Amino acid sequence: MSGTDRPQHPADLPDRLAEVFDLVGPLYRRAHRKVEQDAPIEGLPVGVRAVLVLLREHGPMTVPQMGRAQALSRQFVQRMINDAAARGLVESVPNPAHKRSALIRLTEEGTAAITAVLARERAVLSQAGDGLTDADLTACIRVLTHLLHFLDNVDVD
């Protein structure tokens, strides 16, 4: 794409992107509060839920891999793994690629717990989409993905 072929952005693009960030923070916090309020059935704190979702989506991972994937400290992820292990939701297995960094995987109980949580969340979200189109959601996902990639790759001094 040449410089003249680039899409034109509105002059207020930085302000519009700030609006996105101003909405994402409260949305994230409210969603997590709702999960914690509704999770007593499985008793899953938000951090444990996040680890279980990651393992469900990607299979066994090391604690450092999970930290990088979620942009969280290894120490925080380890605490969440310890909590999940104490609940019987995850287990450590040998890692053929690295003797000192075990792989963490879901147990049957962990798979059942995260599947139940996600099913409940999907049921609630099915009611949240009134008035939204597939194009709306596609644009939203495209914008948020773009911002996430930008923030992962930008150097701020």
From TrEMBL:
Pfam families: MarR_2
Protein name: MarR family transcriptional regulator
Lineage: Bacteria, Bacillati, Actinomycetota, Actinomycetes, Streptosporangiales
SMART domains: HTH_MARR
Domain HTH marR-type: 17-149
